[in-house]
Amino acid sequence: MTQVTAPTLTLYGIKTCDTVRKARKFLAEFPIDAAYHDFRQQGLDETLLDQLIQGLGVKALLNTRGTTWRSLSDEQKQSASDPAAARQIMLEHPAVIKRPVLVREDGEMLVGFDTAVWSSFIQGGR
């Protein structure tokens, strides 16, 4: 009998985020290898951000509803309609990235947390 192993996952987020906490608890229920990367503790470099943008898009990643977004100047908020400016804002303020972000070993990505979607994703679906 062949043993099927789930893909390796990496969860990106911020440990103080309630949704990230829920996602981490959800992942702990699966017998899978899941790494955790905290944007505040481990940082966010340009290469990682570019991979996330390529996989999900700037609009999907930019959280315009959180406290970090609200603390930005009106000029920064207006400039975020430009993808390059939005990228720079995310580099300078990683907490403005929607979370959690879940990345599978094959490069597929999800942003946000939905148990049904995540269950399918973890099992190799999309």
Characteristics of this structure?
single chain; 126 residues; alpha+beta; Glutaredoxin; four-stranded mixed beta sheet; 4 strands; 47% helix; Arsenate_reductase-like; Transcriptional regulator, Spx/MgsR family; Tscrpt_reg_Spx/MgsR
Q: What is the domain tally?
A: 1
Query: Major beta sheet, specifics?
Result: 4 strands, mixed
CATH architecture: 3-Layer(aba) Sandwich
Low-confidence stretches: none
Q: How is the CATH topology named? A: Glutaredoxin
Find the structural class using helix and strand composition: alpha+beta
Distance between the termini: 26 Å
What is the CATH class designation?
A: Alpha Beta
Given the C-alpha coordinates, what overall shape results?
globular
Radius of gyration over alpha carbons? 15 Å
Walk across the major sheet and give the strand order: 2-1-3-4
Mean pLDDT: 91
* Strand portion: 5-15%
Q: Quick one: CATH superfamily?
A: Glutaredoxin
- Please write the string of helix (H) and strand (E) elements: EHEHHHHHHEEH
Can you tell me about this structure?
With 126 residues, this protein is of the alpha+beta class. The chain has a single domain (9-122), classed as Glutaredoxin, CATH 3.40.30.10. It has helices at residues 18-28, 39-42, 46-56, 58-61, 67-71, 74-79, 83-92, 115-122, and strands at residues 9-13, 34-38, 101-104, 109-111. It has a four-stranded mixed β-sheet with strand order 2-1-3-4, sandwiched between helices. A hairpin with a 4-residue loop joins strand 3 and strand 4 (109-111).
Topology at a glance:
Layout: E1 9-13, H1 18-28, E2 34-38, H2 39-42, H3 46-56, H4 58-61, H5 67-71, H6 74-79, H7 83-92, E3 101-104, E4 109-111, H8 115-122
Parallel strand pairs: 1-2
Antiparallel strand pairs: 1-3, 3-4
